[in-house]
Amino acid sequence: MAEAHQAVAFQFTVTPEGIDLHLSHEALRQVYLSGIHSWKKRFVRFKNGIMTGVYPGSPAGFSIVVGSYMAYNKFKQLDPSLGLFTKLGQHIPISRYMSTDSQRIVGGILVGTSLWVTIIMIMRTVLKSLLSWHGWMQERHGSLSWSSRIWMVLVKVFSGRKPMLYSFQNSLPRLPVPSIKDTCERYLESVRPLMDDQQFERMKGLTQDFEKNLGPRLQWYLKLKSWWASNYVSDWWEEYIYLRGRGPIMVNSNYYAMDFLYVFPTSIQAARAGNAIHSIMLYRRKLDRAQIKPLMLLHTIPMCSAQYERMFNTTRVPGVETDTLQHVNESKHIVVYHKGRYFKVWMFYDGRLLLPREIEQQMERILADKSEPLPGEERLAALTAGDRTPWAKARESFFSRGKNKQSLDAVEKAAFFLTLDDTEQRYDAKNPVKSLDIYAKSLLHGKCYDRWFDKSLNMIVYKNGTMGLNAEHSWADAPIVGHLWEHVLSMDPKLGYTEDGHCVGKPHPNLPGPQRLQWTIPAECQEAIESSLTVARALADDVDCHIIPFTDFGKGLIKKCRTSPDAFIQIALQLAHYRDKGKFCLTYEASMTRMFREGRTETVRSCTIETCAFVRAMVGDETREERLRLLKLAAEKHQNLYRLAMTGQGIDRHLFCLYVVSKYLGEDSPFLKEVLSEPWKLSTSQTPLQQVELFDLVRHPEYVSSGGGFGPVSLASSNT
């Protein structure tokens, strides 16, 4: 290809007269601009690291504190160094090198800086103490007591001005460890509606034995970890729940996000990819510069931002016993899959990010490429869809050297992975359920070999311009990916398209084309690929997916009834499940714990005694008034459980960590073993719209997405 020569900085030819050196000035220019871009990025990161490190302090605050201190001492004719240089002068001949005035200035700056740092540490400590109080969560929605209002004012005062993404990390409190007694009581309460009297009495005996004997010893070790580690749950949760799992992550772990439901911005696949990729890269730039505002509950209470750190340039690397997360600080390319071929596409040229039309140009080149896949290349990604141990062994045997390693490095170190899918997916108003079912299953697992499931993010753009996202779960939870996806969807109408559906702008005349990745895949490796594909297809075929659009009413009507929309939906799901199965089951709803440092999720056990009472009333002959009373009780109970989960008083993460400690100590606990083996047959997690301000749904109600979803958490389970 002619474009490939531009990537070579120099060429030389050996002649009888010597070596004839030919420099490519364009290539050298690109090297220079790339270096400038990298150094700018490093400088911004260094500056942001300092700004975050001293927050809620700021350069302006430093100037005010030091300036005021110096002015006060000058007015009072005091020594601003507080005698520091006088004491040092007794041992070191400072006067030889600095005049008295210089000593006063330098000493004043040092003392003023110490005062500024002290003020910062006090503000952080006070803010951490304030954020440890959660009484505001007990207030009724729309009304706050005077104590909560005063508390919010104090939080705002000590929170500083113009925070960056990671500004509050050092001010967030640590996740508290609940008491053994509280956890055991809440556990028994949660399983009471699921057991008959005999089963419950047996479990009660196991619980009481654990609470009195082994529990306190395990709790001591857990308390010790909570004092030492930033979060006593997160590292074990990531390792044992995600990375140590040896089954497929496709369906079982990865989840998906969907496109607009009613809007189809363009039917040109390359154009849709151009705008979407550009939007994602703009988001990554803001993330690198920490310019994304931290999520704030009630515009006041900061949430932990630690999960954003590994959004891009991240891959889950398989291991024989456990996987690892590989993250690189910088990646200037993405990898694109189309019809069995892999292409490396650079995202920067002339020291800048490619524009949407230029990215579309690159996608057009890939779509126009008629080359055939190399032997074994087309289904290579099936290795990431099957069991983890075979993939780890194949990776070590066939991808640890040569061009296979180079190509695998290109995939694993890419900013993210993109599939130009050769199928068409779209919401069909004439056949809404079937069209969404097929669309969701495609995003969840595709053909089982056209997504690189190990990548933190897989973007899928279909032949007709519809798009979606598939995300690996171990590095972060769905709200983090949802935040990115909301940005991408909101940017699409702003970037816009021409009348004929292309991205706005012009193609670049000298843009080097995509680079085809090369593989040499022997027969033994192809057998491993086919084996993983067989496992993955069996799993994909076993998933029965149905998405039913509901337009009768929304959360607005539920709020008018003074009921929590989440509680309403959870109770409705319990009623639906009971009418379908004729019994209740252990139900999993995820709640975030990001009010604490490095917090991830906690479980809300939605099947409560109060909810079961309401369900029985609905299928029985109780009056309308009685049913309404029981509904309000059930909703209030659910909200209380949600508050407990958000404030670190849930039970499942505590029990999980106690179980991990017991394994480290070699202790066998019948109680913990039984608790952690109980299957979650109904999983009802959901992620609401976080950045409402990005979408004008009053003027444009059509700009809504059908959200996303995930696979069943166990055999014969139901998800929403």
- The SS-based structural class is alpha+beta
The portion of residues forming beta strands comes to 5-15%
Number of helices: 22
**Which CATH top level class of the largest domain fits?**
Alpha Beta
Helix coverage percent: 40-55%
What's the CATH topology label of the largest domain?
Chloramphenicol Acetyltransferase
**CATH architecture descriptor name of the largest domain:** 2-Layer Sandwich
Distance between the termini: 49 Å
CATH superfamily of the largest domain, called what?
Choline/Carnitine o-acyltransferase, domain 2
Domains counted in the coordinates: how many?
A: 4
Number of strands: 20
Question: Could you explain the architecture of this structure?
Answer:
It is found in: Mitochondrion outer membrane. It is a multi-pass membrane protein. Keywords: Acyltransferase, Fatty acid metabolism, Lipid metabolism, Membrane, Mitochondrion, Transferase, Transmembrane, Transmembrane helix, Transport. The protein is α+β, with helices and mostly antiparallel strands and 720 residues long. 47% of the residues lie in helices and 11% in strands. The protein is globular. The model is unreliable at 1-10 (pLDDT under 50).
Q: Which terms summarize this structure?
A:
alpha+beta; globular; eight-stranded mixed β-sheet; four-stranded mixed β-sheet; disordered N terminus; 4 domains; 720 residues; Chloramphenicol Acetyltransferase
